[in-house]
Amino acid sequence: MSERMQNLTGETIVTIDGNKHRLGKMAGYGAQGVVYEDNTGTKMIKLYYPSGSKIIDEDILERLHFIREVKVPPNFVAIEDIVDEPYIGYVMEKVVDHKPLNSYLIPDQEMSFSEWYNKGLGFRERIFIGYIIAKAFGALEKANLSYCDISGNNILVKTGGKTASIKMIDVDNIYVAGKGTAAVLGTPRYIAPEVVSRQKNPDVLSDNYSLAVILFELLRVGHPYISDDILDGTPEDEEAALAGKYDYVTDDNSTNMLPADIVLTDKLRSLFQRCFVDGKRNRMMRPSAREFEFALLEASNKVIKCPSCGAWHFPRKTGRVYDGCPWCDSISKPKARLNFYDVLSEGDDYRRGKTIDGSPQGKLVNSYILREGKNQIKSLYVLRYDDPSKATRAADNYLSIAKTADGYWAYNEFSKNGIVIRKLRAGTYTLKTAKGTSTKKCREGEYINLNNYEAIKLENGDYIYFELNVTIEVGGKKYSFIRMARFVEEVQ
User: Fold this and answer.
1) Residue 215 and residue 148: Cα distance in Å, rounded?
2) Where are the domains of the chain?
3) Are 364 and 340 spatial neighbours (Cβ–Cβ below 8 Å)?
4) Residues with Cβ < 8 Å from 435, sequence gap 6 or more?
């Protein structure tokens, strides 16, 4: 570094907006330049190595001005000010109390793998971090911007309790496809094959590949193209694998990482398959960041905590019996869940028609494990989140299920219309309204409207219908399509 730029600690630089920053300690350097902390400890200044070319310098400044004006999504550390002499660079906020995502990708040799993977909230924390990362890149993707250099060093993470903060640094590499040349191609482990081969410049589709690799590593702790044979092979074998010249890993040939059935839902497994198998042949097949966002949000609602070792994991069944915790083999199973179904009934009224497949509830499409306290059910469980007209509402809250000392309660606290409870058995049910709590009689199979700010106590087997039904006509017959959930308490 010293051969390319002298140490500027103690020097004062002036930005194009006239702000003065005295350079403090050097925070790091890389292929593009040097990063300093200013003497206030609140800002970071990145200065590029001298290029010796006016054309290159003008191109860098044009890109910095463009990125500053773009107003990147909140998770990306924005360019606040620009330096144009005597060096080219920019000023950004200093990110504090965060650590590189690499701390989740590279095992700590000072502790066992199990202890390292499960520290904090373990698997649940990893899923939630992945969800926030995917959501952030979904916002960037929506603006048709490419980050170009997704890696475990450029993503910073802060966790605490049940929340997480994600910050993406080095935003000066953000690129609009077709506008000039990307400043960097990326970090080798995460570069899309078509960018490695120089067939394509970085763009949203290559970002989708890099994001999928990061998420795969976050959950499985391994690379999607590096099997056991590649690990035991030569550096040239690994280079070829990273360029996508080998097949997607399987559980049989990749014992170096966590098995897919332990850490992936069916939906996540399908998305990774699309990216690393179908997407190798046709990059248009790669899942978007938004698809990963919703798949990870769903996955976060499918995990349980082992009462023995405390590790978060997906409950798995062999037949009707739950398997043990994958980390300690102790009995570990959920207490209650909502199973969501697509119901297609004869006629234009689902209450009167019979389901087409003859089952009581229709086709199972999703599930949500209920935990202690309040569970806020998102709209994606009720709406089709792949419907473009519904996409902006997919992550909104739709219904709450609260676990209290006396059982589970369904709350219509978000003022949604058309939430209907069907009681499985005849008897009585408890209803809470603004006027208080009351007990009412009900018939077997009775439908009860859950009005705004009302709550009803659920019993095992009760159904919750969401009257956003669609009526279709086929061959002169009318059919009603609706989404429904069934409340199920597990036998402990």
Assistant:
1) 16
2) 12-93, 99-300, 334-489
3) yes
4) none
Q: How far apart are CA 293 and CA 299, in angstroms?
A: 10
* Backbone torsion region of residue 52, taken as left when φ is above 0, otherwise alpha when ψ lies between -120 and 50, otherwise beta: left
Nearest alpha carbon to residue 242 among 216, 264, 275, 213:
213
Express as a percent the part of the chain with pLDDT over 70.
94
- Give the amino acid at 241: A
Q: Report the mean per-residue pLDDT for the chain.
A: 89
For residues 346 and 357, the answer to whether their CB atoms sit within 8 Å is: no
Q: Is 315 helix (H, G, I), strand (E, B) or coil?
A: coil
The CATH-assigned architecture of domain 99-300 is: Orthogonal Bundle (1.10)
Burial 462-481 (b: 16+ CB within 10 A, else e): bbbbbeebeeeeeeeeebbb
3-state percent helix, strand, coil for the chain, nearest multiple of 5: 25, 30, 45
83-114 pLDDT tens trace: 998 899 999 999 999 999 999 999 999 999 99
- CATH code assigned to 12-93: 3.30.200.20
